[in-house]
Amino acid sequence: MAMPPSCSINPRGGSTPSPPWVGCVSASLFPGDSPSYFDLHITGLGYLNRIREVKPKKGDAFLACDIAALNGPSDDVSYVRFDTRVSGSEAQHLVRRCIQAVDAEKKVMIGFRLGDLWTDTFTYSKGKRAGEQGVSLKARLLFVSWIKVDGKLVYKAEPKPTETDERDPEVPVTSDAPAAQQASAPEPSRPVADAADDAADAPALAVAESF
Fold this sequence. Notes:
Layout: E1 7-9, E2 15-17, E3 24-26, E4 39-54, E5 62-71, E6 78-86, H1 89-97, H2 99-103, E7 108-123, E8 133-149, E9 152-156, H3 163-167, H4 179-183
Parallel strand pairs: 6-8
Antiparallel strand pairs: 1-2, 3-4, 4-5, 4-7, 5-6, 7-8, 8-9
């Protein structure tokens, strides 16, 4: 049973609104169905920051970045920070191409899809909140739908073909985020990195084909 965007499944029937930063919860509850996995995806747009290679004490190194996601009305925007692990070769390739622009302190905005959201706690080691507990929202960056550098569109994902596209190739396909929302997105101050993550930062990464 397909659910509309921004809705979640109510076990008693019907649907309930999701939090504003949650894109969609999709599942199937038909009798006899035995789904193996339920996807919870977060879609939105936000500013890319702190692209880095993380080398944990155990396990393999991985690419990570922060996203300051826009939330709320356009005339009073707030920002939700996600500390993400970049998953998949395509997403990693695109994020690596943004390293030079981010290091040059250009405003890099992306349309994104996240998955596997979880929280992690840490302790501030400096600043006004030194010694206090903080909470970090962590997720996997699964897909990048478009990229803008200083307001200029430098990348847009090719739409995947569907049966409708095959029958009528003239139907225009829009990006994941509304055009008006992309154009009017305000510019935040650069988020301050959490001290707890500083140890995970590595030297600048080699990048080819930078935006």
